[in-house]
Design brief:
Order of helices and strands: HHHHEEEE
Number of domains: 2
Shape: elongated
Structural class: alpha+beta
Distance between the termini: 33 Å
Length: 147
């Protein structure tokens, strides 16, 4: 059974200017908290990842991942805008610039990618796609509709 987000976790979230309601939506997509009191989305965190008298290392890591995801989303928008511009103008230099931005974006955020595309779709959704070292599947890693 999950516990309400505790005071130390609320304080850390407040330091990051994230409300507990916002953190709950970020982690679970709704208004109900299913995680542990330490702010971790794993409801077994206290007693499994750390003891009750120890600080939780999960919440800082989850916050770091959240900020990374937000940066990837914003940077992906810039890649996608450059891609759309290249389509619109048809100019080789615009295509080259868009592909260069995409390549750098993939290198920074998806290092395990072995191929990438701005034109493939996954399950009818368009965006930035990759295949990776781990399987033979194409992944939509930046969704135009979700941005």
């Amino acid at each position: 059974m999950s516990a309400a987000i505790g005071a130390p976790a609320r304080a850390l979230l407040r330091d990051h200017e994230i409300s507990t309601a916002e953190w709950t939506r970020i982690q679970f997509g709704g208004d109900e908290w299913f995680g542990d009191a330490c702010g971790c989305s794993d409801d077994r965190c206290i007693g499994y990842h750390h003891q009750a008298n120890e600080a939780c290392g999960c919440l800082p890591a989850l916050l770091s991942n959240y900020y990374r995801d937000q940066a990837a989303l914003a940077d992906g928008r810039r890649v996608w805008t450059a891609h759309l511009r290249a389509i619109e103008t048809g100019a080789p230099e615009d295509r080259e610039a868009a592909d260069r931005k995409a390549s750098l974006w993939i290198e920074h955020y998806y290092r395990a990618a072995i191929t990438w595309s701005l034109t493939e779709t996954v399950e009818g959704r368009q965006g930035i796609t990759v295949t990776n070292l781990f399987n033979d599947r194409t992944w939509l890693v930046w969704d135009e509709a979700a941005a």
